[in-house]
Automatic annotation (TrEMBL), chains A, B, C, D:
SMART domains: Pro_CA (SM00947). It is an enzyme of class 4 (lyase). Pfam families: Pro_CA (PF00484). Belongs to the beta-class carbonic anhydrase family. The keyword Zinc applies. Its cofactor is Zn(2+). This is Carbonic anhydrase. Zn(2+) binds at residues 47, 49, 108, 111. GO terms for biological process: carbon utilization.
């Protein structure tokens, strides 16, 4: 395993900067979080994309948000088949163990995963259809969303499918019995967001009219 | 879906604060990231835990790290079986599309997922053994690590298994042909880290002696 | 005094967010409040509890409420003995200098101070009886309230004593000559409230039947 | 007690607005705070002044800050004499029961209490010297601060004494054994702030040069 190496210096240097500043000024809080355990108010499901850091947008501090990040901020449907389901495990832990009050799904513009899904579903990316394509099989979760945007003009399809990535995930979340139960009891609310990387705008899904509106 | 609601005001307020400050002073960079695409230097795989934000520890700015977060920072082995594999999809995208130069696996102290695995493997948490337990089935990935720490004294097992969560993931990463290939070509290096939430220390895995050393 | 440190960054960031948004859009009003002085309509006495912010419940804007917060929203009786009396000083300033029209005492459910008093008075918390216990000595103010709920069933005592924390404070307020005088002249009215943290309900004391009724 | 009345309608109306909006969208969080108890990160000691709401400046949400407000944000020295000490009780509860990581003392411009102290100490307000003046006796806590600003030019004395109200309080906080102990153990840090009501600026005390600097 010669490709496994100690931490590169550029990261070590940054770490030391953090240790001497942020850690030092928050030491008491971090120790409290360690001794008393975490109690985040919300779970956020967002994309791995390096341009969308929920910790930045919401000024998230240590202890505030339980964050799961995957390609295209997707939640698969409830499938208790005994296989590894990383997203479902994260949702289960957040909702049943940590008892978060909110689950926020945060989509974004220019999403590479959503764009791949768009190409795959429209027949332009046969390599993503292969059984061996992890990205393709992951984006299968979004296929129901693609079907719903059949009537959307071509030039608006990317945005529409990014919205669907949020909506399909919210719907799938409600297929989990433990999510549904706490939501019905008024102990959990779900929220759909989409952010434009370039303009820094944030849109929130309003279920009453089924649209995303600027926050 | 009455449990789906618009963004709560406390998050809207924080967002507006970010928009008026951080976004405003970095607008040119964010627009460039949007128009030119992301080009992160590293992928980081870390835990969902609200107390471990890699964006904080490394002062990560927009565009720098492609971040996947799941319970206990685990990577499953290469299993191209056509099912949804969120972690494998993220690794595939980072390595083959974005061509990141580093993959960093960041473990941490007091990990709830690792602790659950410890209890499950030692027979103290039968509920996690159920087929329907997403957390249990996800933590199955770490079972080989549990077997390796059989001789570790009881009071050191938690830390030892947290280290294993990093090591098993690094090993599993190398079972992915596209990871192996780029690593062998010297185009990708892998790094194992572990951070202590309370003390803010960071330990890096050194393959030469097989130990984690403080950075 | 090495434990005294500059403002942590997480608070600085929130402040900058406020400055760029709320302050900016209310600048003219804040400047007027500075140049002309404050003229709050009411004084509110509420608990320090982080879950009860009167500014939130009543949407209090800058300039509207003069707010004193202490453990269990208590007002001690009139004792002009030359010692430091923070609560009495606040009441004196609000009533004689600012000439507020209302004094509102806001109690709440799950009050840690009231619960401590309950345990202390029933003999379960000897540590609170010590002369050196600031919380214990402060809660002494509520002892007369405990005596009045002697006949209340055990499981209703906490709520009953929370009500008493409001009522004893209202009664003590009227022992202050300057409060009595303005109240008798019809220039000041007193109000007793109690809010349920969990349900968000608000109950108002009605002197005609001596009960708290939902608002 | 005919001066005790039910809640005035203007406050009832505001409450109903909050209940239908903020409460409704945060119901799950408030219920969690009720069932699990509060765990604020910081205690804030600020003035009753209606123009300085820390909940606004820091966007404080339910559950985040344990807030004590009194005239001129003062903390008296440690005096375990068995009398009622509301401020000391609040500090004791925050530090020993809630184990907050930070105590922030927030002063402000145009402070009526500080101004009264200035007049009292310079002989211009004999009525505040009376044993029966609660405001006067409360402001006695700040007398040591007045002595230290003897050399400050007349026109800068108000600001200097507002700073002293913060510094004397920080010093007094460290006379409490339970504060000192946790501070020495690195589990608690203290912070001094001063805000300008008119300009919305915020200054933080830096112990290294003994000055307040803009945040």
């Amino acid at each position: 395993m010669s490709s496994i190496k100690p931490l590169p210096n550029f990261l070590a240097q940054r770490y030391h900067g953090w240790k001497a500043t942020t850690y030092d000024e928050n030491k008491a809080w971090y120790r409290l979080l360690a001794s008393e355990g975490q109690r985040p108010r919300a779970m956020v499901i967002s994309c791995c994309d390096s341009r969308v850091h929920v910790t930045s947008i919401f000024g998230a501090e240590q202890g505030e948000f339980f964050i799961h990040r995957n390609i295209a901020n997707l939640v698969p449907p409830f499938e208790p088949d005994g296989d590894h389901h990383g997203t479902s495990a994260a949702v289960e832990y957040a909702v049943t163990v940590l008892k978060v009050a909110h689950v926020v799904v945060l989509g974004h513009s220019l999403c590479g995963g959503v764009n791949g899904c768009l190409k795959m579903c429209s027949g332009e990316a046969p390599e993503l259809e292969k059984s061996s394509s992890f990205v393709g099989r992951w984006m299968d979760i979004l296929r129901p969303g693609y079907e719903r945007i059949a009537d959307v003009p071509e030039e608006e399809k990317a945005r529409a499918l990014e919205y669907q990535a949020v909506l399909v995930s919210l719907e799938n979340l409600l297929t989990f019995p433990f999510v549904k139960e706490r939501a019905d009891a008024g102990l959990l609310s779900l929220h759909g967001l989409w952010t434009d990387i370039s303009e820094g705008t944030l849109h929130s899904y309003h279920p009453d009219d089924g649209e995303f509106h600027p926050v």
